[in-house]
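Page 42, continued from yesterday. The earlier attempt failed because a stray header line got pasted into the input along with the sequence. Redoing it now with the clean sequence only.
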Amino acid sequence: MTQSKRRFFIALLPPVEIQQFANKIKQHFAEVYNSRAAQKSPPHITLQPPFEWKIEDLAKLEQKLAEFARSQFPVPMTLDGFSAFKPRVIFINVLKIPNL
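This time it went through. Structure tokens are written below.
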């Protein structure tokens, strides 16, 4: 029996006011540059890039992430201009700090 896999990534969602700010920028890029791909996901800070995980083991992943999240505290974030994953991704730069 073949086990199916799906792609996931792990991310932090910033506070609502930061998400609203980022969404305005994404909307501007969509309107001015016809760039709609950025609107597929909410504003986020990627902690773990996309990876494949067996659907059958999804409950295990959810449990481990929930356990980890319960032991964490809010992380201060400082936004600092823009950066890119060339050639296609522009993002608001989050200063890298040890807690993050």
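Notes: The helical segments are 16-33, 58-70.
Reminder to self: strip header lines before submitting.
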